Amino acid sequence: MRRSHYLKHRELARFLVHQRVKYFSQVYQVTPGRISIRNQKTRWGSCSKRGNLNFNYKIVLLPTHLADYIIVHELCHLKEFNHSANFWNLVALTFSNYLEIRKELRETKIVYK
Predict the structure, then answer these.
(1) What is the pLDDT of residue 113?
(2) Domain residue limits, the chain
(3) 75 with 30: CB under 8 angstroms?
(4) d(C-alpha 108, C-alpha 44), whole Å
């Protein structure tokens, strides 16, 4: 079931992520490299040193504000490749309540449909 669930949602996730990355890239004035949608077990997203972004396909199953937070989080790594105060200040430009959003994201359970 896991593989079929991934295949069913991967293209929807790709469309969502590309649309939102395009929008937030303009806000943050960054240019990401390659964007990949993956079936990750423990991560919602990641950013490589080369500026490539990876997102979990399950991002498409999240409420919009959580998906947007994940995308903003990874885009902010293009300016600050760490979790320093500067990084969190960048995230806070869009999500001043990022601490609450992080907590909500940790508590989110994805139900397979």
Answers:
(1) 45
(2) 2-107
(3) yes
(4) 11
